[in-house]
Write a structure and sequence with these properties.
Blueprint (H helix, E strand, L loop, with lengths): L15 H13 L6 E5 L5 H10 L8 E5 L8 H6 E2 L11 E2 L1 H4 L4 E5 L6 H13 L1 E2 L8 E2 L3 E6 L3 H6 L5 H7 L2 E5 L9 H15 L9 H9 L5 H16 L6 H8 L17 H26 L6 H26 L4 H8 L3 H10 L4
Parallel strand pairs: 1-8, 1-9, 2-5, 5-8
Antiparallel strand pairs: 3-4, 6-7
Helix pairs in contact: 5-7, 8-10, 9-11, 12-13, 13-14, 14-15
């Protein structure tokens, strides 16, 4: 079995998509250029960021990870840029922010699409000058930090809606790396499954179980909406509960459960209801419409007033987004945490969208 560890500068897989990403990482790692990593949740964006850092001249320096969606908006600037003593209630001492902690190294800004607008201009200044001020400070601080950002959102759409600065977006995406969903590179699934089985079994000190061909076939054909993260959690649960027993088709089916989701094009049993299938068809149609809108916008650029053009585009985009949120909220029976995770946005953003579209 050929292994590709998830750390130590490697990605698991033999698909063309993974090989292309490995090649791109090797090209950009030695430089100081900003990188924007895109892809669905669970596709391994942080792994790619770590690889870029570890293959760069900054490898021996700090790599600081910031989850922009997990920091409350009110304290975002204090966390990222630091603050001076007495700059606000509770600031009893000076505090260094993430950029100072990452000085001479790399800062990985995950969920960049959740960054508050008022902080975006300061991030842009750091990218352009390497300077910033702590909250409550009066003196600029100079740092030498490489910025790698990641998102599972459509930032171009956020820019069109005024939710993300266009200048920051283009500055961050000097190089873009897009991670393909696992369901679009199924040839990588057996390698991932074997690696997760062996790695986790050794970590919990149990015999490494085998998996039969028909058991593996089920995993290869599964939809894996949560991508590599979902597959990893699934395998670790199976290894833990089966304690070294062989994973055959029956075992895998039992763990997948009655809600197991499979790629519609494959000749396998689909457990979704007709109503669910119809909603998914509507959703896919809306997503196709969104792409067509972007193409149409470019085609009519010379004939339609720019403000009118943006108004039409924005209105149609909002309808697409509203339907997407409504569908996902229904899928998770109103659970807003799961809905936000599935949509790849923060809960704060979801609450704002629910209010905006009257879905709360």
């Amino acid at each position: 079995m050929t292994q590709y560890p998830m750390t130590n500068n490697q990605l698991i897989g033999r698909s063309e998509a993974i090989q292309a990403i490995r090649g791109l990482i090797k090209q950009v790692a030695p430089t100081n250029i900003s990188v924007l990593i895109t892809g669905e949740s669970g596709t391994g964006k942080e792994v790619v960021a770590e690889m870029i850092h570890e293959l760069s001249p900054r490898a021996g320096k700090p790599m600081v990870t910031v989850n922009c969606g997990a920091i409350p908006e009110g304290i975002f600037e204090s966390e990222v840029f630091g603050h001076e003593r007495g700059s606000f209630t509770g600031a009893e001492k000076q505090r260094k922010g993430y950029f100072e902690l990452a000085d001479s190294g790399t800062i990985f800004m995950d969920e960049i699409g959740e960054m508050p607008l008022n902080a975006q201009v300061k991030i842009l200044r750091i990218l352009e000058t390497g300077e910033f001020m702590r909250v409550g400070g009066t003196t600029s601080i100079k740092v030498n930090v490489r910025v790698i950002a990641a998102t599972n959102r459509d930032i171009a759409a956020a820019v069109a809606k005024g939710e993300f600065r266009s200048d920051l977006y283009y500055r961050l995406k000097a190089v873009s790396i897009n991670l393909t969903p696992l369901r679009e590179r199924r040839e990588d699934i057996p390698l991932l499954v074997e690696y997760f089985i062996e790695d986790f079994s050794r970590r919990i000190n149990i015999p490494v179980p085998k998996i039969t061909n028909d058991g593996m076939e089920l995993l290869v054909n599964h939809y894996w909406e949560g991508n590599i993260r979902e597959l990893k959690n699934f395998v670790e649960s199976m290894v833990t509960l089966e304690k070294g027993r062989t994973f055959n088709r029956e075992t895998v089916m039992r763990f997948l459960g009655p809600q197991g989701r499979y790629e519609p094009q494959l000749p396998v049993h689909i457990t979704r209801s007709q109503d669910q299938l119809e909603r998914e068809l509507i959703y896919r149609t809306l997503m196709d419409l969104r792409r067509e809108i972007w193409e149409l916008r470019d085609m009519v650029a010379g004939f339609v007033d720019q403000n009118t053009q943006m108004e039409v585009h924005s209105s149609l985009m909002e309808e697409v987004e509203k339907e997407q949120i409504r569908r996902t909220l229904d899928q998770y029976s109103g659970n807003r945490r799961l809905t936000a995770e599935a949509l790849g946005i923060g809960e704060r953003t979801l609450y704002r969208k629910l209010k905006q579209y009257g879905l709360s």
